[in-house]
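Weekly structure sync, notes
Attendees: PL, DS, HV (note-taker this week)

Item 1: LysR family transcriptional regulator
DS walked through the input record. Source organism listed as Terasakiispira papahanaumokuakeensis. Sequence as pasted into the shared doc:
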Amino acid sequence: MSLLDQRAAYLNEVLVCGGIRAAADQLGVNPSVVSRQIRRLEAEAGMALLERHGRQVKVTEAGELVVEQFRAQQRLSSELRDTLARLNNLEAGKVVVSVGDGFIDTFVAQVLKKVSVRHPDVMIEVKTGIYYPREPHHMVIDDEVDIAITYGPVSDPRLTIRSFVRGPLCALVAPDHPLADYEQVSVADLTCHKLIFLPEASGSQRCINAVFADAGNLVTPAYRCNLHSVARRMAAAGIGIAFMTPKAAQDEIGRGLIRAIPIDHPVAASTVGNLVRRTGRRLSPAAHFLWQLMLQMQ
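Item 1 (cont.): predicted structure, written out as tokens:
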């Protein structure tokens, strides 16, 4: 990587993270290092790449062009490495996949075990959790990950998308919760109890927000956490109602720790997941095998 590319990497991180301090935290350096590298990049470019307004910064049009070129070069370099590895018949390497926390149990059981047997020398990096401000499909577009699973509708011409039915969005409650014996709950029923929400960037949270908004209810959660697994534990403890599909909570449901009650609203009646990759990107043999297995996920 040239010095210009290295400095452009700092500018790219500022654009991704939304500020110099956030970019520095992400890179593990002092904010002054980020500022200094960008000033040198501006000197080489002969124009401002950041607009500074007190502590706030905004990437200029010229800065966006520099970042776009940097990302294009990174994609080309990645594709070249992948192609050379295949030409040399190398089975080692790395595949990076983003899997939402609600999909992780299915992914490990149905996909990861088979990939580890078929490609034992390939390192699989799994990114999971709730991402902010970056969403999984944006990571795919920028080649930060090879493949991603997302929740809810996604549409972008730069992506190859395979959607699959994930099932209804349900209210998850403990067996002794007042709603546990309901065959179906209304939105009004839910507003009478403590609710457990995920971050706004979560696909399932956006779905439940749409349910409440359509019903004309403004609700404030009693709890908010950033992992589906934590929300499930909180629901199982009986302190509130979490929201996700039965498939996302199948382990706890199977063990009798949680009950999934359907929500009487058309938005919650059926939800979709999406398997996405960047259109035109050449996948390594291991990544292609992983993609094929993920297409069969239930």
